[in-house]
Specification:
By secondary structure, this protein is mostly beta strands. Helix content is 6%, strand content 60%.
């Protein structure tokens, strides 16, 4: 994991440096590119604290970048999200992840010729998700010693969805994509499937396998609004049903991000994520993160003119 962390920090630093170097680049319509990097830090310390408590420190690096193209009825929206976070608790033998994901979403749409339909387009989308470092399940052995069992790693799993359908977009802050024909490919490392029993699976992949293909329907949506001055609410929802296997068991991924901008560089973020995937565990997965963030604006490319 240390090597992955080091590579990630080098990559992230190089990325920021390259953006700064490209400050003079000016692109005009139909392209628009912008992004943001955030460093979240949480820390607590106790010394002779009678009510108890454990010292801990955690940090998360998050980056997102948007690439948008609009011209002659065509719209191409791509969003790249990368996040990695670690937590160290006093007395714990291991570092533990608080966040770890690589996600790329890209939607291409072509508006209908009929003006009465307005904001609807034909569309095609691709979504890719994986993680940076190994993931573990933590427990104790028979002697009470802390142990960890590897449950995932980079590209295991790696999930790609590709679908065609309809795209409704009011503006950058509100859109819905419906894809009744969506292919889904799950790739895993055989390290996790070679010792499975015949009735077991790893992210839906059977014994000695390394991939699973699904065909289903997908709905993806995004909504962002400012609920108070400098307080932004961002919602992301993804639904998927597999036609070929238990179509009634709908997978979903909902993320709520509340961000309060203190000043140009400081913000606070509260994130709730709810995930259900029938191939992973048949229970609701919940993640909550609260932290103070240092913002770095990656919007160095200017000269964009709004499409008419």
């Amino acid at each position: 994991m240390k090597s992955i962390i080091t590579l990630f920090i080098i990559f992230f630093s190089a990325f920021l440096y390259s953006q700064a170097k490209n400050d003079s680049i000016s692109l005009v319509y139909p392209w628009k590119m912008n992004g943001k990097a955030v460093f979240l830090l949480n820390q607590s310390s106790f010394s002779n604290w009678t009510s108890g408590g454990q010292s801990s420190v955690s940090g998360t690096i998050k980056g997102n970048y948007n690439l948008n193209y609009y011209d002659n009825g065509w719209a191409w929206d791509t969003k790249i999200n990368i996040a990695f976070g670690l937590n160290k608790i006093s007395g714990s033998d291991f570092l533990k992840k608080t966040d770890d994901r690589i996600e790329i979403n890209s939607v291409v749409g072509k508006k209908f010729n009929n003006d009465l339909i307005g904001k609807w387009s034909y569309s095609s989308f691709i979504n890719f998700q994986t993680q940076l470092a190994k993931g573990y399940r933590f427990s104790k052995d028979s002697n009470g010693n802390s142990i960890r069992t590897e449950k995932s790693r980079f590209f295991s799993p790696a999930t790609t969805q590709l679908g065609i359908g309809l795209y409704w977009k009011k503006d950058q802050n509100l859109w819905v994509n419906v894809a009744p024909m969506t292919g889904k490919l799950i790739l895993v490392n055989r390290f996790f499937t070679e010792n499975l029993n015949e009735n077991q699976s790893y992210f839906g992949v059977k014994k000695n396998g390394n991939s699973r293909f699904e065909l289903g329907a997908s709905v993806r949506s995004f909504y962002k609004t400012e609920i108070y001055e400098n307080v932004t609410l961002e919602n992301r929802l993804s639904l998927y049903s597999d036609y070929l296997d238990k179509p009634k068991n709908i997978d979903f991924d909902y993320t709520l991000n509340i961000s309060m901008q203190v000043n140009k560089f400081i913000s606070t973020n509260l994130i709730f994520q709810f995930v259900y995937d029938d191939n992973e565990i048949q229970r609701l997965q919940i993640r909550e993160v609260l932290g103070i963030g240092l913002n770095i604006d990656l919007q160095f490319i200017s000269g964009y003119k709004k499409a008419l």
